Amino acid sequence: MELTTTGALYAWIAGHDKWSVLFTLSSLWVIGIAWSAIYNVYFHPLRKYPGPKLSAAFSFPFLYSRLVCHDLHHVRRLHLEYGDVVRIGPDALSFVKPSAWKDIYDKTVGKAAIIRHRRMYNGWNIEPNMANANGPAHAKQRKVFAAAFSGLAVKEYEPMLQKHTQRLILKLADVAEEENIEAEMCQLYTRTTAHIMAELTGSRPTRKNTRRESIAEGVYHTMIISRRYLIFGWLYTYLVALPLLLLTYEMSNFSAEQVKNRREGGTDANIWRFAQKDAEGNIAMSQHEMNMNVELLLFAGAETTATLLSAVTFFLLQNKEAMRKLVKELDAAFANDGDLTLNSLVRVRYLTACLKESLRLHPPAPSNMLRMLPAGGAIICGEALPGGTEVSVAPYTAYRLPKYWTDPESFVPERWLGDPKYDSDAREICQPFSVGAQNCLGMVLAWHEARLILASVLLKFDFVLGEDSQEWATGQRASIVWDKKPFMATVKMRSAEIN
């Protein structure tokens, strides 16, 4: 039958001129698209959910916004217009309800797995790591590294964290001595956090650091570019993925070399010292899996913490009263540098509040983290959704939505310290480290690292926001993480205590 049908098609094509064939095929293609759009808008299982008709009919509005790295701003506009649940594509819903975090990202016993969507996570690296693996593969890899990012392990890392923080202080001191020179704070913070993650994951401080930084920067751009162009499906594979995989391969080889060196030499405190071992004392994963996760940790561990530090510094420079309160509290708590420890910094409540407020206004991972519902569907925010639906929370939107926050666009650390004015804030909707079994493994490290670096910097220096950086946090593009603009600031040694 198939041969007969194919033969009939060839016979029909042969019996007509090429323009008639082209017109007929084009007409059928247009009719197919039109029918698909009509079905999506009027008959699709998600038809009742609000959103633009164009987004309900076609995927391209959201995909185009992702291509130009404006998807979080696109989704924000839709939520402000249509409400807490918005249909952002034919098969996709975006949520800004507090309960959506648990329903989408926190797998509980008896609930089918809601998996990470390949369109979001598999673009930059087709090999499994903790960021793109699902089910048992993810659980296995996370279990290996869990102890390495525990509070006990982070305490062992404190001397190393202090060392790199002091190196940042020395760099800022050099800038402070120069006249008419501004520091690029994003760059300084990123280099500091990158060196911390490099030492934690096994990269020795050698002459190869330049190569490592160059490759790591390339992997950052790989992730940004690949997520943008993954929307083109098979075309992505040939035009974008192959060149990017060459860079990823180079990074993998470099990671393998460095990991091998660190594991075979010394007993320094690093993730391999705490990683889960098998009965023979070997790391309980393959060398290849180790390499893939080192790439992930080098990027995610450095980039997100650097973004947090850049953002909180910016907001404090814009809000002089908050800066005054924080520096006053730091001055009162720490009479000398020796008192500045990870444990003592936890007790500085206003410091933590400033970091929380920065995470709300400028989350390091601001875009919708897509999940795919299993074949049987799932209940999300009380709604029964069909299998195959793409679901996600829009964090950047949820953290600034007027219905959930008082003064949503303002930097107000007091909202995290029990100020009665902000009692109605839906603080549970702010989950910058996500929730559930796939939340950020490095959360404890990130908190300690950010507290230590920010407190150390503010105890030593005064800053003035650069003229060209007054609107640094406004209108930034993002794709998984922020494509940060330069953040310029004048640096001076602290002249006196702030009263």
From TrEMBL:
It holds the Pfam family p450. This is Cytochrome P450. The keyword Glycoprotein does not apply. Its cofactor is heme. The chain crosses the membrane at residues 20-43, 229-249, 296-317. InterPro entries: Cyt_P450, Cyt_P450_E_grp-I, Cyt_P450_sf, Cytochrome_P450_monoxygenase. GO terms for molecular function: heme binding; iron ion binding; monooxygenase activity; oxidoreductase activity, acting on paired donors, with incorporation or reduction of molecular oxygen. The keyword Heme applies. Heme binds at C440. Keywords: Heme, Iron, Membrane, Metal-binding, Transmembrane, Transmembrane helix. Belongs to the cytochrome P450 family.
